[in-house]
Amino acid sequence: MSREMDKPLISLHLVDSDTSLAKVPDEAPKVGILGSGDFARSLATRLVSSGFKVVVGSRNPKRTAGLFPSAAQVTFQEEAVSSPEVIFVAVFREHYSSLCGLSDQLAGKILVDVSNPTEQEHLQHRESNAEYLASLFPTCTVVKAFNVISAWTLQAGPRDGNRQVPICSDQPEAKRAVSEMAITMGFMPVDMGSLASAREMEAMPLRLLPAWKVPTLLALGLFICFYAYNFVRDVLQPYVQESKNKFFKLPVSVVNTTLPCVAYVLLSLVYLPGVLAATLQLRRGTKYHRFPDWLDHWLQHRKQIGLLSFFCAALHALYSFCLPLRRSHRYDLVNLAVKQVLANKSHLWVEEEVWRMEIYLSLGVLALGTLSLLAVTSLPSIANSLNWREFSFVQSSLGFVALVLSTLHTLTYGWTRAFEESRYKFYLPPTFTLTLLVPCVVILAKALFLLPCISRRLTRIRRGWERDGAIKFTLPMDNALAEKTSHV
Ligand code: NAP
């Protein structure tokens, strides 16, 4: 364990080859760090390169000094905390009490708590690590900061990682001092208020993609349903009714029939909540009633659902490129050629099939291209460079174009197959007919909303008009004032 701790994240040779880390001017502000682990080393490197004088307090400075940039002073804990006003506590919560012997030297100083609990610790302790530290050192001011920044980001620099540093403390002055340090180090401080927010900040690194949970489960659920449906139609039915072994289709062919279904339905689910919200507003005749919680959540997850739709569509494109590479496809081609020769047919060309395929391929490529535009513009760096109108044009109008193109792609793929009896395996309709259901409802609803009588009413509602005429106010006691109060 101790050997692993001795190993710096980035080779010390690289760190010290940066001349900015070799020496710091004497007049530079001094910062203390308690602990000499991964975080302390990365923090020291970043502080030194940002122009701070660093003094590290270790229980065994001799052992750890060689792991820090040469400009940082590594000494015993007592000596390290004596002069700096700001001291980072880079040790785990369970060792805080071992620092109590330093209470006198630390009195009146700012302690920066960078710690993160494990999930179990977070549930176990009701008070945050920072509040616990504050209770152990009542004469110090505790600031919670930098816990969401990894040792790696600190060492590599903010350009390569998360730039936001949430900060909280009960002392505004201390918070300002640490915020200024964060800015000098190239980070963006975010004021989280009093130390009571520390628990929320400590929960941040424990979350695993919270906004993606429901959309991912939704995509997985759809994938499993469509995969099972396609399996029954494409593999089970030939096996049971025709004694044909088509199980080789499971890894590529069935997956490739499933992916576009998931992508298409997910894309329609991006636009369905908007349709439901507009319908509710029209029915209620106001925009001032809250949507039900489930609709609120759905509206908030549209970006993730859209990105998952793009992911499935991109995979579908890749799988489709791979179809001709399969051995089974080559055998099928050769068998078809032999059949043709035996049947004495020289030229196989079905004009309608040729056109169908040309059109549906082209529409599919166009739909994927439009979806890629949506995905790119949902990246924060691109989204931030667009104004509100540009963003809503891309996400709303172009997104709807992508849905229409995907619908046309599906319709031309299906062509007349929905009306052929042989396509109903085990009496189950072809998969594409099922996928058309939700998107067609969305497209029809959107078309209805374009009708002047409905669109005018919807626009008025969204600008604050209400069917019942007025928002109800409690009348002021003064009569004259009451008369002046107009209906909104
Ligand atoms: P680490 O590598 O295990 O270092 C912990 C350090 O604590 C040790 O090197 C040790 O330094 C010091 N320490 C002081 N008193 C101790 C005691 N009684 N027993 C054992 N060690 C003691 O851990 P780390 O990764 O640097 O993390 C330090 C703190 O930063 C933790 O609270 C962690 O949650 C937080 N943090 C870490 C990261 C990260 O990416 N690593 C990111 C955000 C926050 P001496 O032996 O020199 O005294």
Automatic annotation (TrEMBL):
Molecular function as annotated in GO: cupric reductase (NADH) activity; ferric-chelate reductase (NADPH) activity; metal ion binding
Location(s) in or outside the cell: Endosome membrane
Record's bilayer topology term: Multi-pass membrane protein
Domain Ferric oxidoreductase: 261-404
Keyword Ligase: no
Matching InterPro entries: Fe3_Rdtase_TM_dom, NAD(P)-bd_dom_sf, P5C_Rdtase_cat_N, STEAP_metalloreductase
Taxonomy of the source species: Eukaryota, Metazoa, Chordata, Craniata, Vertebrata
Main location: membrane
Organism: Sapajus apella
Name of the featured protein: Metalloreductase STEAP3 isoform X2
Family membership noted in the UniProt record: Belongs to the STEAP family.
Domain of life the protein comes from: Eukaryota
GO biological process, one term: copper ion import
TM segment ranges: 214-232, 252-280, 305-326, 359-379, 432-454
GO CC annotations, alphabetized: endosome membrane; plasma membrane
Catalyzed chemical reaction(s): 2 Cu(+) + NADP(+) + H(+) = 2 Cu(2+) + NADPH; 2 Fe(2+) + NADP(+) + H(+) = 2 Fe(3+) + NADPH
Alphabetical keyword list: Copper, Endosome, FAD, Flavoprotein, Heme, Ion transport, Iron, Iron transport, Membrane, Metal-binding, Oxidoreductase, Transmembrane, Transmembrane helix, Transport
Residue stretches making up the Pyrroline-5-carboxylate reductase catalytic N-terminal domain: 30-117
Record's keyword annotation contains Protein transport: no
Cofactor: FAD; heme b
